[in-house]
């Protein structure tokens, strides 16, 4: 984990050779639902959520918040990279006032195995 200081948000899109990291938009809603409904993704995040529940819960424009970036390939969302603040004393919980940031990622299964997560995380950390 790294120290998290003040960061201007939203950032300008971050471009790599293949990807764009950007804020979520209305066009990302179907992919957000697919991501959280996926049984394969759910294996790593405590289970898939029911699609009908997600259809009701996900707003027209998926939630924009500091630290959450969509990973875009050729104009379509394939995943997301997240920074969540963690309290050093209680690292299991994301807290608005936490002093450290944890980098995470989720990708649609069709995007697995192509190096997109490594590329997106390196870019998000400014190490591309």
UniProtKB/TrEMBL annotation:
Annotated Pfam families: Acetyltransf_3 (PF13302)
InterPro entries, per database record: Acyl_CoA_acyltransferase (IPR016181), GNAT_dom (IPR000182), N-acetyltransferase (IPR051531)
Superkingdom as given in the UniProt entry: Bacteria
Parts of the chain that traverse the membrane: none
Ranges for domain N-acetyltransferase: 18-125
Protein name per Swiss-Prot or TrEMBL: GNAT family N-acetyltransferase
Organism: Polymorphospora lycopeni
């Amino acid at each position: 984990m790294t120290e998290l200081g003040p960061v201007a948000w939203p950032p300008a899109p971050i471009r790599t050779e293949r990807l764009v990291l950007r804020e979520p938009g209305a066009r990302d809603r179907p992919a957000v639902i697919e991501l959280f409904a996926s049984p394969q993704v759910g294996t790593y995040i405590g289970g898939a959520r029911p699609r009908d529940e997600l259809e009701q819960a996900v707003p027209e424009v998926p939630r924009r918040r500091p630290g959450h970036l969509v990973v875009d390939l050729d104009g379509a969302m394939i995943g997301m990279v997240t920074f969540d603040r963690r309290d050093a004393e209680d690292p299991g919980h994301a807290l608005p006032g936490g002093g450290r940031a944890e980098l995470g990622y989720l990708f649609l299964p069709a995007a697995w195995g192509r190096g997109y997560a490594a590329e997106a995380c390196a870019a998000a950390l400014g190490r591309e």
